[in-house]
Every structure is written in structure tokens, then in C-alpha cells.
């Protein structure tokens, strides 16, 4: 039996070992048999602090970051024993946002205003750098193609070449002063556009500096903000050029990513709790009353 609260997004599957690894809100990481619903735990590890977000899987190393400023690599084959610790001694700043992994590199941002890059298999530190925009990072970094985006709570967005702690990505700016309100939900990147939320509004930020005038903020957006009927409660999800949103009042909305026009909207009657999932044109949604909905398709 797993003690502590487990959210569905705080789990990762280790397919080669048939394991499901979950993190709980009491600072434990559990591995269970993924093929047996009633299976008892295979291993359990107590970590120093609350795990932020879902565990990451890099090869057969399960990576977790805690609010205590420690990042751990747990060996999934060796009963979750600690394969590496970052930093080796002491701590970094408090980790508020879940880490991100791409091509074996783990990206961790801390409340002190720094980003840390770690080899996810070996735990080798690759680099660390302070953010140009000071403030807490409360949503995970996004790695898209050759660029990593870090979102500062106060509203700024910083970009680096992926795998590095400095420089300006090709075809991108290094800093985007994009949002007038705190960034509390992960944005989404699709090509040269970044979709982000401001409470009830969806914005489409141009990422390629050749397509806007940096001295004229009005040119940085592809279209006027799309406004929902209530606060948007899910991160934007983009599939085939359509942006999907869920709201506090229970609406699911589909917006044309190129024009900002609403394509359709459905009232489900209860708060949309998690980001929509799009599979073969069907949109799957979970609402606060425990229902799972399939829309379209």
C-alpha cells in the first residue's frame, strides 16, 4: 500500500522493468509492478523533501528533484538505491517547478534564480547559470528542438541553446518580456509560437525575432488575446495547429493556433482538472466530479 497522496501526473513507467514509479506528497518514491493492479510495493525510497512533479526516467535511472534543493538519481534496477546526488554536498536553492529532461540532460531551475544542467544517467554536472530575469520558477522548463525555455513567475521568459547555460538560440531572443501576470501554468511551444496563459486569456507569442519589432510589444503576438469565460485551469495543449484549454467553470475550448479564432467549445459542468489529452483527433478530459470525457474523434 502506498502512503501519502499520489496524483496521476506524479508517476512514470519503467517499461523494460515493468515498473510504475510514483512520488507522494510525504517525500517517498515507490516502485510497483505495472502489470498487477493489486501488487505490493517492489521498493520504496525516502527522499529529503517533497518531490516536485513526476519522476523523470533517463535510461534506467529515476530522477527526482525535491523542495529541499536536492536532485537524486535512483537506480531502478537496484531497488531505488541512490546512483547519484546533485549537488554532491549541500543543496541548491528550493526547487518549486518540476525538472525537465531532453536527450539525457536534466534541467532544474531553483528559487534562487539559477538553472542547473545535469547528465541524467551519471549525475555529472554540465553547467549552471543565474537567470537574467530574477524570480521564482514555478513551472517546468520546456525543451523544444534546440532551445530551452525557462519561465519566471513574474512574467519573463528566458531562452538558451539546449544543453548549454548561456548564449542565444538560433532564430530566438534570449529574453521575452511576455506576460503581465505571474506564469503559473506551463506554456506550450509549437514551431515559432509560444502559447501562454494570463488567467482567462490565451496569448500567442512570436518567438522568432525577425517576425516582430522588439521596441513595439504589440507586434510580439500573432493575434489579440483569446478570452475564455472563466480562469483557464489547464496548460494549453497543441495538436495539429489547434490549442485546447480547460476552464474553472468546466468548459473545454478549441482555438485555431494560427488565427486565435474559437473552433468549438463544450460545457462539461465541472472544473477541468488536468490538461486535455489528444489521441487521433479525440480529446480526452478529466473533470473535478470524477468523470472522464472523450470529445470529437
Descriptive report:
- By secondary structure, the chain is an all-beta fold.
- It contains no helices and 27 strands.
- The protein has strands spanning 11-14, 19-23, 28-33, 41-46, 56-58, 61-65, 71-75, 81-86, 100-102, 105-109, 114-119, 125-130, 142-144, 147-151, 156-161, 175-177, 188-190, 193-198, 201-206, 226-227, 237-239, 242-246, 251-256, 262-267, 277-279, 282-286, 292-296.
- A four-stranded antiparallel sheet has the order 1-2-3-4, with no helix packed on it.
- A hairpin with a 4-residue loop joins β1 (11-14) and β2 (19-23).
- The relative contact order is 0.07.
Topology:
Elements: E1 11-14, E2 19-23, E3 28-33, E4 41-46, E5 56-58, E6 61-65, E7 71-75, E8 81-86, E9 100-102, E10 105-109, E11 114-119, E12 125-130, E13 142-144, E14 147-151, E15 156-161, E16 175-177, E17 188-190, E18 193-198, E19 201-206, E20 226-227, E21 237-239, E22 242-246, E23 251-256, E24 262-267, E25 277-279, E26 282-286, E27 292-296
Antiparallel strand pairs: 1-2, 2-3, 3-4, 5-6, 6-7, 7-8, 9-10, 10-11, 11-12, 13-14, 14-15, 15-16, 17-18, 18-19, 19-20, 21-22, 22-23, 23-24, 25-26, 26-27
Summarize, please:
This protein has 297 residues and is mostly beta strands. The chain is 0% helix and 43% strand. The protein has strands at 11-14, 19-23, 28-33, 41-46, 56-58, 61-65, 71-75, 81-86, 100-102, 105-109, 114-119, 125-130, 142-144, 147-151, 156-161, 175-177, 188-190, 193-198, 201-206, 226-227, 237-239, 242-246, 251-256, 262-267, 277-279, 282-286, 292-296.
